[in-house]
């Protein structure tokens, strides 16, 4: 069975050209997503992947319609390969059931792996250079040591009735931070003592 999948990036784009090309290629059913952005869900792709069985072909018009990034594209291709589903890309004449199609995806995988290795190497070099200059990574502390001490004193202060004199919200407002920040610092102080 040939299963077609198309995607348009925005609601204004029209998927008809992709649908027509997929139907002309003998696809039935055809699934089309209207998804924008890297994190947008693609429910129609999920349906297409569920529908695809061993020996089937998932057909797309262009590579960029399937994966949002090279890494995502390769992961999907590997997932299809494990399940025995071939990937066919009409515009680029790619068919993973052929040796040339499989080689193309292996080359893409090697390029993606090389790219990841370069990113890791550059990140490590940048961190090492920053450490050599005396800088350390991580977020800047929200409270200075004196403010932490003040927060702890306010938290520990009891009123005449024996209850806490200041709420965590009062302390947060006084120091200009979120309540969760106060809780985090109070927990740290508690674990140190």
Automatic annotation (TrEMBL):
Location of the active site: 9 (o-(5'-phospho-dna)-serine intermediate)
Region named Disordered: 1-21
One example GO MF annotation: DNA binding
Pfam family, one: Resolvase
Keyword set includes Cell division: no
Domain Resolvase/invertase-type recombinase catalytic: 1-134
Domain of life per record: Bacteria
Residue ranges the record marks as coiled coil: none
Keywords: DNA integration, DNA recombination, DNA-binding
GO biological process, alphabetically ordered: DNA integration
Keyword check for Cell inner membrane: no
CDD domains for this protein: HTH_Hin_like, SR_ResInv
Basic and acidic residues composition-biased segments: 9-21
Similarity comment text for this entry: Belongs to the site-specific recombinase resolvase family.
Official protein name in the record: DNA invertase Pin-like site-specific DNA recombinase
């Amino acid at each position: 069975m040939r299963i077609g999948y198309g995607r348009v990036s925005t609601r204004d784009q029209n998927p008809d050209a992709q649908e027509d090309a997929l139907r002309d290629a003998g696809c039935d059913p055809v699934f089309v997503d209207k998804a924008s952005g890297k994190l947008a869900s693609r429910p129609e792709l999920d349906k297409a992947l569920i529908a695809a069985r061993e020996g089937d072909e998932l057909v797309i018009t262009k590579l960029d319609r399937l994966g949002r990034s090279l890494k995502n594209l390769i992961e999907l291709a590997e997932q299809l390969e494990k399940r025995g589903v071939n990937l066919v890309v009409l515009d680029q004449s790619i068919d993973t059931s052929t040796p040339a199609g499989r080689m193309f995806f292996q080359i893409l995988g090697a390029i993606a792996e090389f790219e990841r290795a370069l990113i890791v190497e550059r990140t490590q070099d940048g961190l090492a250079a920053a450490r050599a200059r005396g800088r350390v990574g991580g977020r800047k502390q929200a409270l200075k040591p004196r403010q932490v001490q003040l927060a702890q004193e306010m938290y520990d202060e009891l009123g005449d009735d024996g209850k806490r004199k200041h709420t965590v919200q009062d302390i947060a407002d006084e120091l200009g931070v979120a309540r969760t920040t106060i809780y985090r610092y109070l927990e740290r102080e508690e674990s140190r003592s």
